[in-house]
Amino acid sequence: MPKSEYFAQELIDSGYDFFTGVPCTIIGNLINTLTDRSDITYIPAVREDAAVGVATGAYMAGKIPVVLMQNSGLGQCLNTLTSLNLIYKLPCLLIVTWRGFEGKDAPEHLVMGRTCNKLLDTIGIPHHNFNHDNIKALINMSYKLITENREPIVLFLKKGIIE
Amino acid sequence: MNYREAITTITELLDDQLVVCANGLISREAFTIRDRTENFYMIGSMGMASSIGLGVALSKPSRKVIILEGDGNLLMNLGSLPMVGSLQPRNFLHIVLDNEVYASTGNQPTISNAVKLEELARSAKYAYVRKVTTNEDLKTEMIHTLKNEDPSFLLVKIVDTEEEREIGRVTHSPEQIKDKFMSAM
Q: If you compute the radius of gyration of chain B from its CA atoms, what whole number of angstroms results?
């Protein structure tokens, strides 16, 4: 299984240079990796909408930002995505862990696990799923889309893709 | 001091500082008093002014970044205070115009009559915190905080006695607002 260090390196190599978010166990190691690196900054956020807000400010100041969160956080930042990022065309890469995928999770994850992709379709944010083989390709594609289309994009990360 | 007087006093002292204006009357008033390339006008995303400004401040440490928001906006994203306090951006000036109501929606009460917002900022480790109630004190504190190098918080108590009147809306499109603001970097 690809390691979090590899995943972080791919993000940095593709051009992302500002990181913030709220942890989930699936990305616990990834956030620790980003926090430990001295060449980049990871800003711990108190809530997912605050993370999106900070990332958006960073973008306007010249950074290409990544926000890490659990899919529960999509609900938390829905208004910021719709009334800031989408209408101003202010992009960020959202790496969202997909808890509750196929109903196999704790009860609190099941509704969002069933609907998070449809929620993004409804508000018009493109999304793709990581698998073991497409990490580099998806990260590079997301960077291209963000810098060309200036829209937020979600890459879903399920359990068991990275360690 | 009403909020129009406060925003006028603040605006008159600015040169190239980057200002994130919260949604509602504050953006509309700031735009009407003096539209600046260095102003970012939020039209939605209530609560996010301080988060957006924090992202700008961290990424542009050479520029002073000012947040101009009301008590309603601050209370909606109170977690932003300790985020700023933990990061200690030296170029961050957080101004809260506190009229104890949601003025943009018709003056429904917030809860800031019962809670000392400046104490929250102090507790969240802002290095310089002041509460002002007069236009003269606002001017003095603005002159100081535009030059200091500490994360600073000014609570400006607003007593809104001005007559009701029509205020224009921000006439730039959201994309124009963004493009202008980014060109000021």
A: 15
